[in-house]
Write a structure and sequence with these properties.
By secondary structure, the protein is an all-alpha fold. Helices cover 72% and strands 0% of the residues.
Length: 72
């Protein structure tokens, strides 16, 4: 399902969207903890932020796919 979300049913998209939102929130928490820790690892922090941004893009795409088409 990761490779072609557009072929999934709305129910499957909603389920995947929920998973992505949970992962995004978890990454946000992990990033916050790393920033607060003075012994933070910059490489890990950059990777987490990059993953979080990727998830945000996927979430936005899925949300647009689930919205009714207003062009009609």
């Amino acid at each position: 399902m990761d490779t072609n979300d557009s072929s999934d049913s709305p129910e499957n998209l909603r389920a995947r969207l929920h998973e992505l939102l949970v992962e995004h929130r978890d990454l946000d928490d992990a990033i916050s903890r790393l920033v607060e820790n003075p012994a933070q690892d910059e490489l890990i922090l950059r990777r987490l932020k990059k993953r979080k941004l990727h998830l945000k893009d996927r979430i936005s795409l899925m949300e647009r796919m689930l919205q009714p088409d207003d062009r009609a």
